[in-house]
Each structure stands twice: as C-alpha cells, then as structure tokens.
Design brief:
single chain, six-stranded mixed β-sheet, 18 strands
C-alpha cells in the first residue's frame, strides 16, 4: 500500500481523488448511466404533501436509458442535504434534487448544495434579473431574492415551454453532477420534462415487455426462478394484483436488447401453463384507431351497432369545445369516453382535449376518486365537477362552458334514461343530450371494454 501511495504521489494523484476517478469510470463503462433522486421537504416526511415528483422523474429517466438506483426523502436540514448530496454524487452518474428552493426559511437546498462542494453562495446576476423583472421582487431584503442566491460555481440550464416555445422563467441549477429542480409538481413537470432528454438522454434504452397471468405467484414461482438463472443478464419482476379485473399477476422482463428480452419472455411462457396467460393490452391508448378497427373486424353480428355509435359521435364532434361527456364512473361512461377519444383522433390527427362532466351529489368515494384521476391522466382530459344533476346545475354548466351544445350520455335504453339519469327531455336549456349507446346490450358493453382492455372502476365489474 505504501508503494502505491508513493506511485500516486510521484504522479500527483491523491488516493482519495483516484478512488473517485475509478468510481466514475466504473459508472461510465457500465451498461447504463445511473441516478439518485433526493426529495427534499419536511412536508413529505410529515405526510402533509404526497410525493409524486420521484415517480415523474424516474419515469422519464427510465425512458432516457438512465437507471435510478435510489430515492431518498430528506428533511429541510442543511447538513443532511449536504451529506446526502456528497454521498449520491460519488455513487451515481447524476443526482436530481426536488424541493427546497423557494423564498421561505425552510428552503435550504442551495445552502446544502454549496456546503456539499464547499462552494460559497452568491447572488447570480441572471437570477437577480429574473426575480426583479419577472417575479416582481423589489428589494434585496425581500425573501424572493433567495431564488437568486446559489453556489458560485453553479451553472444554469433553461428549459423550454412546450406550448409557447419560449424559455421557462426559472432554470435548473447545476453544480458538478447535481441538478436542482423545484418541488412544486407543476413547476417540476415543466422544468424536468423539458430538460430531461437534453441533460440525461443516452443512446442506450431499456427493452421491457410484460406478461399478464390469471394465477397466484406460487403457481409460476418455480418457472420464474428457473428462467432468471437461465438469463442472468435479464431483469425479472413479479407483481401480484389483488383488485385488477383483468389479471392477478404481472411479470416484467427487461434487458438491453429486444432479442434478449423476447427470448427470455418466450422461455418463461414455455415453462408455465398456457391457460393462465392473459391477452391484455396495458397501453390501449396507443394506436387507438388501429385497435378499434381490429376490434370491429372481429365482430360480425354486432359490428354495425359499434360503428354506428362511433359515426354518431364523429358527427357531433365537429368542434370538441361544444361537447361534454357525462361521466359517473360506470362502465357505460368508459365506453362513451373511449369512443369519443377514437372519434376525436379520426377527425383530428392529434385530437383535442376531451371535456368530462362529473355530477356528484355526494362526496366521491376513494375508488371513484382514484378512478377519475386515472381517467384524467389516461385520456389527457379536463374534468369538471358539479354537485347536482345536469338539470339542477344547468346554469352553472352554461356559465362554465358557454359554447356547450351537446352532452354525451351512456344510456342504452329509454328505461335507463329515466332510471339512471332521471331525464325527461333530450334538450336542457339549449344543450342537446345525445345517447350513442342506444340499443347496446350489457354484453356489447363488456365485449367492447374487455376486448380493448379499457380501465373501469372495479365496483362496476359484472360477472
């Protein structure tokens, strides 16, 4: 060891720095770049705010070919932040922080960053200009000036607003391999979303596929153990599902090449009973028109009912701003929504945002609330909540959506119109109520939903 130290000293290499170089080289020559995520804020640890940022960041990094190795949630403590930044910086290619960069006393991420790398803080002239001219901060004594007080060696990276094409108001602050992003989910999504490919994009992607099974884990556990040993360069994951209506377990298979992933999948499927395999599409929104047409081609006796409903909606959807979709989480609502999505895509290549109208007299149940959030994300739709029925809330409805001309509802018969929607007239204060599913049967509804693998609220699952 003494001879090694002498060698390092002769060539001016400090042992500590040498070890850092070796760690970085190991990271560089591995298959994928790595990342550690630091979520900063007492509000997360106290469960006052739900962390959604780590999920968003991890998802985009995965698409960039970056492997997230660890996520750590920290309190608003300068020393704790500094220590974790130093630790993560040595271990991972990139370190992403979220939170703690606002104007209040507990926003101390920049202090922790500066302390981690012994870089004193200063008022960056570009950031001073931003807080003065864009944020309206008047004096240097204002708390808002904290947004300009960053480590002296840090650099700025401005994201681009995807809608306007202009630079975002506030940049990502970078020091060494640490990237500091805001904690507010809206600002985080805009900033990280616009910079992710630029800062972290690689030419190495993960190739992943999934297998869906109608069986408990113990049924296929031996097969999974065997195939994982046979393919040591492939990552396998098993995730039981207790409430999903389509499958009871999901297997993920991931490698660096499509050939290896497919070979491992085929081998696993050959080791399990064929009758537990489920034909499930976990991305029904992709190529939705093609999948709808493929579904139609498999229907013989009822094809015209499905196609006539879509044409009815296409006729109405000449202007998406004029149409609202009545949504009460039942399965007919899901069918109407998906038909509207496909119609919108067929009329406009990229489609416009759908408008969902949710009328709830009572507080939403947890199942309904979770399902609405899922629907909003899946269909990229705007959801408006009303406390009464369309008849009672018609004035509020007209005020919120002055151009509204049509409401799509999921009734399949005149009886359902009266019993479920309690509607006597098909026109409410100039708004026409349309029923594209008229004469559909329950079998039609569930055939449509299950063949296209559409999400639906579990409480409406039928035998």
């Amino acid at each position: 060891m003494q001879s090694l130290r002498a060698f390092y000293d002769i060539f001016g290499i400090n042992v500590k720095n040498y070890l850092k170089i070796i760690r970085r080289l190991n990271s560089t020559f591995s298959n994928h770049q790595t990342a550690g995520i630091l979520i900063i804020g007492d509000e997360i640890l106290k469960a006052q705010v739900k962390d959604t940022n780590s999920y968003f960041i991890s998802n985009l990094l995965y698409k960039c070919g970056v492997k997230v190795k660890k996520i750590s949630v920290l309190s608003d403590d300068v020393d704790e932040i500094a220590n974790e930044i130093r630790n993560f910086s040595r271990k991972y290619t990139h370190v992403i922080t979220s939170g703690g960069i606002g104007p209040t006393h507990d926003d101390v991420t920049f202090e922790g960053l500066g302390k981690a790398f012994e870089s004193p803080l200063h008022y960056h002239p570009i950031l001073v200009d931003i807080v003065k001219n864009k944020f309206g901060v008047e004096g240097a004594s204002s708390p808002g000036y904290k947004l300009a007080y960053i480590p002296k060696e840090a650099s700025l990276h401005f994201g681009i607003n995807q809608e306007t094409g202009r630079p975002l108001a506030y940049p990502c602050i970078t020091l060494k391999n640490v990237f500091v992003f805001p904690g507010s989910p809206n600002f985080l999504r805009g900033s990280f979303g616009s910079l992710c490919n630029k800062l972290f994009g690689t030419n190495k992607n993960f190739v992943t596929t999934q297998v869906f099974l109608n069986a408990r884990e113990e049924v296929f556990a031996d097969a999974l153990t065997s195939v994982s040993k046979e393919f040591p360069l492939v990552n396998f994951g098993s995730y039981p599902e207790f409430i999903h209506s389509y499958y009871r377990a999901r297997i993920t298979i991931e490698s660096d090449t499509e050939a290896m992933t497919q070979k491992a999948k085929d081998r696993f499927c050959s080791l399990i009973p064929t009758n537990i395999l489920i034909d499930y599409d976990n991305s029904p929104m992709e190529n939705s028109i093609m999948k709808y047409e493929r579904f139609l081609n498999k229907q013989k006796e009822r094809r015209n009912y499905f196609e006539n409903s879509l044409r009815h909606i296409e006729y109405i959807y000449q202007d998406t701003n004029n149409v609202g979709i009545y949504f009460d989480s039942n399965v007919e609502s899901t069918v109407i929504l998906h038909l509207a999505f496909v119609a919108n895509k067929r009329i406009l290549k990229n489609g416009n945002k759908l408008q969902i109208l949710c009328f709830q007299k009572e507080t939403l149940s947890p199942a309904d609330e979770d399902f609405l959030n899922q629907i909003m994300e899946t269909y990229n739709a705007d959801i408006m909540l009303f406390k009464e029925t369309p008849q009672n809330d018609i004035e509020i409805l007209k005020w919120k959506i002055p151009n509204l001309k049509f409401i799509l509802m999921g009734a399949k018969s005149e009886v359902e119109k009266r019993e479920i929607y309690n509607l006597k007239d098909d026109v409410l204060n100039g708004i026409k109520i349309e029923y594209p599913l008229m004469d559909w049967t329950d079998t039609d509804v569930w055939t449509f939903v299950r063949c296209l693998s559409l999400a639906h609220c579990p409480i409406y699952e039928k035998s």
